[in-house]
Every structure is written in C-alpha cells, then in structure tokens.
Amino acid sequence: MPRKGNGSSGYSYTGSGTNSHDNHWCARDYGTSGTGYHYSNNDGSYYYSNPNGSTYYNSGDGYSKYTAPSGDVYKSHGSSK
Question: What is the rounded distance in angstroms from the CA atom of residue 18 to the CA atom of residue 7?
C-alpha cells in the first residue's frame, strides 16, 4: 500500500530502497500529475525528477542545477561533483 507523503505534499511513496552505490532512492506517485523520484546520495548530494519533466540536482556543497520542463537550465555557483 502506498504511503502518503508528509503534510500537504500531494504525493504518496510507492517504493524506496538503496541502489548499488548505497544511495537512497524513493519513488513518488502524484496521482493524475504523474510520478517522480529522488535520490539522496552518500556524498551529500541529492536529485529530484518531477512529474512535470523538471529535474533538480544539488551537490550538497553549493552547486545546484534546475532543468525546467521547457528544457531551460538554471545553475548556481559552487563546485559540481
């Protein structure tokens, strides 16, 4: 049975686990909006893939990258891992 996200998050957890690199992942169901997932990595970085096609990556040390559904890319300063 899917587990509801926290508060008014609008999603349910449909699966989670650890990949071969020992990084945590979690799959989310946003209902009629679609599905998404995120990774929380051992090096402090994390990544989101959203149902609208956007993605977000944060290195955990100052670098981030957001890719909008349109394909436009926005980056912050910092070091990329």
Answer: 25
Question: pLDDT (tens digit, 9 = 90+) per residue, 35-58?
Answer: 999 999 999 999 999 999 999 999
Distance CA 81, CA 65 (A): 12
- Nearest alpha carbon to residue 3 among 38, 27, 34, 19: 27
Contact 50, 58 (CB under 8 A): no
